[in-house]
Amino acid sequence: YEPDTGPRVRVNQVGYLPGGPKNATIVTAATEALPWRLTSATGAVLASGRSTPRGVDEASGQNVHSVDFSAYRTAGTGLTLVADGETSHPFDISGTVYDQLRSDSLQFFYAQRSGIEIDGDLIGEEYARPAGHLGVAPNQGDVDVPCQAGVCDYRLDVRGGWYDAGDHGKYVVNGGLATYQLLNTFERTKTAATADGGAALGDNTLRVPERGNGTPDILDEARWELEFLLRMQVPTGKPLAGMVHHKIHDRNWTGLPLDPADDPEPRELHPPSTAATLNMAATAAQCARLFAPYDAAFATRCGTAARTAYAAAKANPARYASPADSTGGGAYDDSVVTDEFYWAAAELYLTTGEQKYLTDLTASPHHTADVFDARGFSWQGVAALGRLDLATVPSGLPAAERTRIRASVTGAADEYLAEIADQAYGLPMPGDANSYFWGANGNIINNAVVLATAFDLTGDAKYRDGAVQAMDYLLGRNALNISYVTGWGEHHAKNQHSRMFGNQSDPSLPNPPAGSLAGGANAALQDPFVAALLPGCEPMFCYVDDIASYSTNEVAINWNSALAWIASFLADQDDA
Ligand code: 9MR
């Protein structure tokens, strides 16, 4: 199998910010510097220079050169980069390249909503669908859901929330990360200079049914999941009261395609877990402080739930979801929860200012540890979430502590910058196969989030420029010459694995909406389709835009939440 990788000059197919970095990669046999030229839509030469030979790139196995045309800063559309007899895909230079990506990436969450009719007037008629999983036949959930055998003797109403990904499961652990990132995208507008007070994320900025209700739409979207997370809590008077069920999903795996409203499988609650309980505690604590100005009663409900969940987790610190529990839904197992404790204590401290949470926070092994992994934070490793919020959200932390915490963010960002400089494709991850795993596109963005936060803290443009380079990789500057975001770039992913979208499985279905991110190259080839198609692939080539490949090409809330965060940050960079 030979993928069609198009022109050998690789660019960010969407575009570059006028004052930002402008980098490209040439795949070539040449070992000496090559001349390049930047051309306008009419063929005029706008800039020219010589490439830098980089040798063989570890992640792709290709001999490559890099091109830096950052010095050219004039806006334009339909530009191309020409080198070695090849013309790149066209791109723009514009201060608004990312503006629409902010709303497109957030729109994905509305498309993933469970328990509500999806309104075609808001999202496009092709995406309209009836409410799923409200207990209307043939659905069997999610308003009166029993537990798996032997897990509990009660039933819960756990309607709502977002479908996790291409399946119809709803997992508290992963929902927690996505909710954090949406809430944090909003919270950033309160502290970041370039966010201009958050007007772009206010009410009436997204196509959601709640628009115009006086609450910022991104909070309305996050609330759809928060209400679900709160419903997953074990009721008072029951065993493990205050803990949170790990997940709810179908008893058996279903096939593609399947409209949520047509899913006939029994739905079941899986055992409460410490990780899920702390994910709810952390995000409910964020909810309590962010909703206070808009809906005091909801903020109070969140605050109470966060406190009771945290206390329950402390009383039950080692209830782990089983790695074997992956029939009908993903396992999302995690047997190290010290990071979840740290994150939840941080959020509760930031919300309440109470000493007991500060005590737990400072006693955590993560408080002084390096929490920023070279390969990004994820649903399983969440200490960075607490650290980023401690660095950015105003609190009563002593000044020296705050300084130390902020220095840990910029220190990690410096390491990601060094990695970017090392990579011929400019991504902030090491070049070996270990960086290409299931959902790594989300982790790549999460490293960009750390870079962007370092920029917010310091105003030093090198950090913003690092975040931009990470996006270059996702939007086309890569070995496959593909943009991993549907609808964005000349050649983009559009056949992501999903039961709800995808005309590869049913010609009457639309592909995922614009702004949907694919999981990305995964050298472990963890689905039968890529295992058969791509044996021996170089890491950056271990991806295919086919609906069958769930381990490289699925949509998911945790990677789209990363995309929404960074798109919102980049849309704010008007001066770059
Ligand atoms: O993103 C998850 C990845 O980190 C795991 O390695 C993988 C296998 O357990 O599962 C991924 O999450 C999937 C989940 O299990 C079920 N819904 C779809 C998720 C995205 O592919």
From TrEMBL:
Active site, UniProt feature: D545, E554
Catalytic activity: Endohydrolysis of (1->4)-beta-D-glucosidic linkages in cellulose, lichenin and cereal beta-D-glucans
KW Transit peptide (keyword) present: no
Similarity annotation: Belongs to the glycosyl hydrolase 9 (cellulase E) family.
EC number, as in UniProt: 3.2.1.4
GO molecular function: cellulase activity; polysaccharide binding
Keywords of the record: Carbohydrate metabolism, Cellulose degradation, Glycosidase, Hydrolase, Polysaccharide degradation, Signal
Residues of the full protein shown: 184 to 759 of 871
Organism: Micromonospora yangpuensis
Name recorded for this polypeptide: Endoglucanase
Domain of life, per lineage: Bacteria
GO biological process terms held by the UniProt record: cellulose catabolic process
